[in-house]
Amino acid sequence: MEHLVAILKVQVVVLVVALYVAAIFQVTKGKSGIRGGVISTRRRNNVTRFQLLGVTVLTSGYFTFRLIENPSQLPAVPPELFYILGGSNLLYLAGKFLSR
User: Fold this and answer.
1) Residue 55 Cα to chain centre, angstroms
2) Which pTM was predicted?
3) What does the pLDDT look like over 33-92, one tens digit per residue?
C-alpha cells in the first residue's frame, strides 16, 4: 500500500508540473487568451497586470508545493500573504484608476 501511495504522489507532482509547463507554453506562444489583458495588443505592456499575475503565480506555486509536502491537509495561509496579495491588488487598482 505504501508503494501505491508513493506512486500516486509522484503522478500528482508530474501532473501539476505538466499543467504549469503547458500554461507557460500557451502564454509564451500567445494562445492563452490573455492578449489584450496582460499583453497589450497595442504593444504597450501593462506593468500592474504583470505584477498581479506574478504574485498570483507565485502564490499558487507556494500552495501547490505546500500541498505536495503534506497532502493530508490544506496549508494554512500565512498572515503576510494577505498583505502581499492586498498590496498587489491595490497597485493594480491604482494603475487602473490612474490610467483613466
Assistant:
1) 7
2) 0.59
3) 555 555 555 544 577 778 888 888 888 888 888 887 887 787 888 899 889 999 998 988
Three cell numbers, residue 22: 503547458
In sign, the C-alpha dihedral spanning 69, 72, 74, 76 is: negative
Residue ranges making up the domain that contains 16: 2-99
**Residue 26 pLDDT:** 76
What 91-94 contacts at long range (C-beta under 8 Å, 24+ apart), as own/partner pairs, is 91/48, 91/51, 91/52, 92/48, 92/49, 92/51, 92/52, 94/48
d(CA 21, CA 27): 10
Say how many domains are in the chain. Answer: 1
Beta partners for residue 35, in sequence order: 39
